[in-house]
TrEMBL record:
Belongs to the ABC transporter superfamily. Pfam families: ABC_tran. It is found in: Cell membrane. Keywords: Amino-acid transport, ATP-binding, Cell membrane, Hydrolase, Membrane, Nucleotide-binding, Transport. Its main location: membrane. Its EC number is 7.4.2.1. This is ABC-type polar-amino-acid transporter. GO terms for cellular component: plasma membrane. One of its GO terms (molecular function) is ATPase-coupled polar amino acid-transporter activity. It catalyses: a polar amino acid(out) + ATP + H2O = a polar amino acid(in) + ADP + phosphate + H(+). Residues 26-260 form the ABC transporter domain.
Length: 266
């Protein structure tokens, strides 16, 4: 498949048409966040509809990770509101646990449990939180591991797998919670170059299947191929937002032009 045909396939997915701008799956509304005196998120407004793939790019320190971490409430916000499927994120308690399970997150470092098998890494949370039987959890986990191409590794320990394989396990582990939306925070940044594509391919497949995704990445090929929308952040603010074509071909701000010049020169 050529890049453009993949792109067309991804973007024409039926689920995309099902999304309504006034009925967003993730809504970030007037969100501010401070770390002490540092204003890291400045009046952030974002809506992500069902089936949409939003790519967030921007220089280091611009608040991309903090934004992701606020969306599944790993960080509290100082003002504004974040809604997941219409429900405001609760501050704590059972409701937070339930809502957090609806938001899967994949980090740069895979954070698998080192002393548990690949299979156990994937089944642990569903058994505890979704309270499904071991048989059911194992069955679902094996299907997910097959989907990301590492089912033959199920009995091994994380250290016996390559970085790319471990990151694919981390994706399967998130999917095992049946999230409504998946957040990816620079999922390929810690990988050796030859392993980047195997992880991006899994993410492109997920997008094609209609998963709602927010992806922080510097992989511009992925952004062009799979994103419905690109957001450019700098210094805690959203400076640009548009389709990949609008953003890459008609970059508006000097800040974004400068940033793109630097990363595309590599
Ligand atoms: N826990 C924290 N305490 C204090 N400052 C933080 C913390 N986490 C991030 N920061 C600061 O907030 C800013 C945004 O960081 P981050 O969200 O990680 O940016 P990005 O992911 O875009 O590189 C940076 O200046 C960073 O140093
Ligand atoms: Mg970051």
């Amino acid at each position: 498949m050529t890049e453009s045909s993949v792109s067309a396939a991804v973007k024409s997915g039926d689920s995309k048409a099902a999304g309504h701008a006034d009925n967003p799956l993730v809504e970030v509304s007037h969100v501010d966040k401070y770390f002490g005196d540092l204003h890291v998120l400045k009046d952030i407004n974002l809506k992500v509809t069902k089936g949409e793939v939003l790519v967030i790019i921007g220089p280091s320190g611009s608040g991309k990770s903090t934004l992701c971490r606020t969306i599944n409430r790993l960080e509290a916000i100082d003002s504004g509101v974040i809604r997941i499927d219409g429900e405001p994120l609760p501050q704590e308690g059972k409701d937070l646990t339930r809502l957090r399970a609806e938001v899967g997150m994949v980090f740069q470092s895979f954070n698998l449990f080192a002393h548990k098998s690949i299979l156990d890494n994937v089944t642990l949370a569903p058994r505890k939180v979704r309270r499904i039987s071991k048989d059911q959890a194992d069955k679902e986990a094996m299907e997910l591991l097959a989907r990301v191409g590492v089912d033959s590794q199920a009995k091994k320990l994380p250290a016996q797998l390559s970085g790319g394989q471990q990151q694919r396990v981390a994706i399967a582990r998130s999917l095992a919670m049946h999230p409504k939306v998946m957040l990816f925070d620079e999922p390929t940044s810690a990988l050796d170059p030859e392993m980047i594509n195997e992880v991006l391919d899994v993410m492109v497949d997920l997008a094609k299947e209609g998963m709602t995704m927010i992806v922080v990445t510097h992989e511009m090929g992925f952004a062009r191929q799979a994103a419905n929308r690109v957001v450019f952040m700098a210094d805690g603010e959203i400076l640009e937002e548009g389709t990949p074509e609008e953003f890459f071909e008609h970059t508006k701000t000097e800040r974004a032009k400068d940033f793109l010049g630097k990363i595309l020169d590599h």
